[in-house]
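Reviewers asked in the last cycle whether our approach scales beyond single polypeptides. To address this, we selected a multi-component target totalling 696 residues and predicted its structure end to end. The input consisted of the following lines:
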Amino acid sequence: MAGKVEALAELLDRDPRVWRGRRPAAWRAPVVPSGHAALDAVLPGGGWPAGALTEIVAPSHGIGELRLLLPLMRRIAGDGRRLVWVAPPFEPYAPALVQAGVEIGRMLVVAVADHKRDLSWTLELVLRHPETGLVLAWPRTLPPSAWRRLQLAAGEGGALGMLFSGGAAGGTAALRLSLGVCEGGLELRILKARGGFGGARVRLVL
Amino acid sequence: MSLARAYHSPSLPAEPPCEVPPAEAAPLWLALHFPALALEALGAAASEPIAVTEAGGGRLLVHSASAAAEAQGVVPGMALAEAQALCPGLTAVNRDPEAERRALSRLAERCLRFTPWISLDFPATLQLEVRGSLRLFGGPEALAETACRAADGHAVQCGLAPTPAAAWLMAQAGFPAPVLEAEALRSALGDLPVAALGIDDKLTGRLARAGLQVLRDLWRMPRDGLARRYGRDLLRRLDEAAGSRPQPLRQFHAPPRFRAERELAMETEDLTQVFPLVEVLLAEFEAFLRSRDAVAAELELELRHARAAPTRVCSRPRRAGRQAGQFAALLRQRLERVALPAPVRGLLLRSADLQPFAVPMADLFTPEAASGEAWDELLDRLQARLGPQALRQPVLRADHRPERAASGNAPRSGAAARSPRPLWLLPRPRLLSKRDIRILPECERIETGWWDGGPVRRDYHVAVDGAGARLWIYRDAGTAGPWHLHGLFG
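The resulting structure, written as structure tokens, was:
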């Protein structure tokens, strides 16, 4: 009997779809540490969800949204996995990336001219690929069905998908957070987190 | 020894000594010699003074020279230094044996319409076995003339004789009259100098000192004495020329090509009806490749229309492959964005760039290292749909101008700058329209590029705008001009 209870508890712990109250310590879904201790403390599992989508709502470009992800980029590139930028609003600048210690040899930038037709196709193809480690994408809008497809693709390939959106339509991402500017850094607000509660606020100095 | 011999069954026929063309009549060889092949293969113009050089005896020697160079006294065999003294404007080019071989195989492919039996064993020469083709092409002279015309664009000399060696000797010497019978060979070749046999200068000198100047002199000598004094090699060459000893040659085979076509039952503009037929052709292509153990580096699909030029779709995957499914996916992506000028009537699938299949080597210790293949396939698919300019890789270049330090295709090692650089760079700087910015005092001056027509003299600052974004802005150094936005610190 005791064995069966343990097996059941383990099953419940393992499945991220089962919500069991505020028990973040039992959360065992794969995560990648964000490199910011304060942020890891509030993220369920202690890091960015791997094999899932993260939606980042940023009011404008250039406030620190890339600096937030630099530790993650260093880790992914250091593991020898691919880092793909899909439809970035500007040019990712190689000297700055090298300065920040990110290996640029296995990086790919994909420009998408026709967002409506090609963007979700491109994202799905890239996320599904087993060599992809991190996808940074700037979709203007994505229909809810595309969010679900991409979520499945990311789960299959095990890649992290970071999607920057305007925040108008809430996607079905595993993690949604919004960025705000504060003195000397960023203020993050977790809007929704699978396996945890939303509403936490963190201030990061970048 | 006797035991070993006993195992050879006497009833077995002896192995054929060489591969001879299957002709009932004695073979007849047409040698097409290209004296200027080394120059022509390099695409050199005859009006320029150009010499093709080759290393010999520790020096660079002239292998062949263009007409303009020869007019100034440059001759083959001369040292390059001497040739340059004679002809000051001489351009020296290294000989490219690979290009010569390619040019010769192209010529051989053109000559396959005269005979299926062609050999490339002689230097800069095609050997065609033409006994069976004489009647079709109207006799030996007419055949030789047609064959020379087929080698359009190359200087050519031909010789026609019953043995390949004799045909080669005649082509080199420029004898136009064909020799059809082996019995007539000795008298026809008798007046050629002994050096034409291709023996070295030392032996030629020894023969000349003995008073042996032409081939007729050699044929008059006793054979065993010749072999004893001057070596068996000389005797072998003499016998091959006269036809008393067969000379094995390797046969040239044209490189394989694939070509398959289909007519549609009825004309259609609907590509969904065309595609199943493309897949049939691709399956045929895959079977063709597998039977030859080859992979294809490129593939062309031609859609034929009744009253319009055919639509061509070409696919060049990053990695040569032979999977029909892989080609089908690429062709489908390309076809989806093709505008058809007219209904499709037929299909043609062809591929000329076939390469031998090589088994991919897996790394024992890091299995991931060998997985680039799947990634290349992904890049192919992305590029087929998004266009050739869609994929880029950030690279570093050794240039201080920010817009050039990360552009271009040629990756070069460049040290990262010490002062802060923004993670976002604008493709081109734009005039800063915002007023509510706070400019930080640190300044970096970038002043370079005056030598290549893109001079830059700017003072860069970091600024923070009202929304909290960190900007990288500049204005021309020493002026109070307008601010330009060049990057964002992401």
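Chain B has 15 helices and 19 strands. We regard this as preliminary and will revisit it once experimental data from Aim 1 are available.
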